[in-house]
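Late entry, written up from scratch paper. The run itself happened at the end of the previous shift, but nothing got recorded in the book at the time, so transcribing now.
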Amino acid sequence: METRLIFIRHAQSIWNAQNRWQGNANPPLADSGREQARMLARRLSTWKIDAIYTSDLHRAAETARILGEALGIEPVEDSIWRERALGALEGLTTEEIAERYPEAWASRINGPITGVPGSEPQESVAARAAAGSSRLLTLHPGQTVAVVSHGGMILSTLVYLLGLPPSGHGLLTVGGNTSISRVVTVDGHSRLKGLNDIAHLEMSMT
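Output as recorded:
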């Protein structure tokens, strides 16, 4: 039985627009992000989606609400899909992180970023990814489920589902806001069907 999982990174928040790292910080969507979410919703309005789950952080939950309104589906908020808490990095720009925490910044090349004061252990993130994925596959066999989450959490979930080692965090990337990544699971075996699809945003640029 084939179960289809659609992982969607949230739309642009006010901190994304400022290039600030968020983690468990909770800034809202920017106006540009709401427009991205509407473009996402228009694209997915023709897809067969049976359920929508979302992180409870504002930027993901509002993205999911906009999508759910277009599909006639009430999103289910679940904190298991939250972004990894990033401790001292939250609120800093990429440039500030590279300057103040150069060793942590360099660590992301080989796997999940490490050495960040106050951050959630990656083992905890991996456990959430495994538990969340298992829950979806148990509750929705043979269905198509969309999950609106965050770049780091989606990446950890893909690494888990595809059976990749921790170094997979340095090989894959979850792209821009509202990017779509798709996984198909059959009899416990998962295959990546799409990664970082933002065709709905690109069409608006033509």
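Residues 122-139 form the longest helix (18 residues).
(Scratch paper discarded after transcription.)
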